[in-house]
Write a structure and sequence with these properties.
transmembrane; alpha+beta; six-stranded antiparallel sheet; three-stranded antiparallel sheet; 2 helices; 9 strands; transmembrane helix
Amino acid sequence: MTRHEHDREYEREHERGYSLIEIMIAMGIFSIFLAMFIGGIVAVSRVTNDARTDAQTSSAIGISLQRLERSVRYADAINRPGTVGHRAYVEWRTSAVSASSGVETCSQLRYNSDDGTVALRTWKASASPATGTWGVILRDVRGAATTTYPFSVVAAAGGISNYQGLTVHVIAGTSDSAGTETTTTIYAKNSSFDSISNAVGTNGQSANPVCAGTGYRP
């Protein structure tokens, strides 16, 4: 092999491999695929987290409604709901015969739009409402621009519709989730058309509300 041929062979040996431009292009393509891969993982993680959050919210709503159902179904009278400031209220009374304590009992449900909670308290009908202690039964409840949110009452009309019913409509969920919307009506089996709170007054409230002690809607 001549020296000239040897030099050309040497140059070819050193020219093998990738140029800087080729490496940059390859890195750019790799970066694109890496970004797509990571984006896919993040999206799947977000969907999974949202689904988990919504499932937890649905479970919390179900538990709170079960608790309400055990109380409301034995009531003999339900008041028309009312609002005070950013809070909505509804009350019902359970006779001594039906109450587990054997004492006539008042119960009150309160929705506070300031902190997104629904709370429940119970007290002896003969005592002051202030003796009842609030217990939060549902959190992360969102507001809604309706006058009946989240409580409304089905009046007893006699005949087939001979019971009063409490309708609870809530939209709940953390701010980073889709949220869960639920509407359910619980009928008070001991109520009737003749229940004292069934008649409505000119102000849209019960004409003769039960459990309406001083400051009962704080």
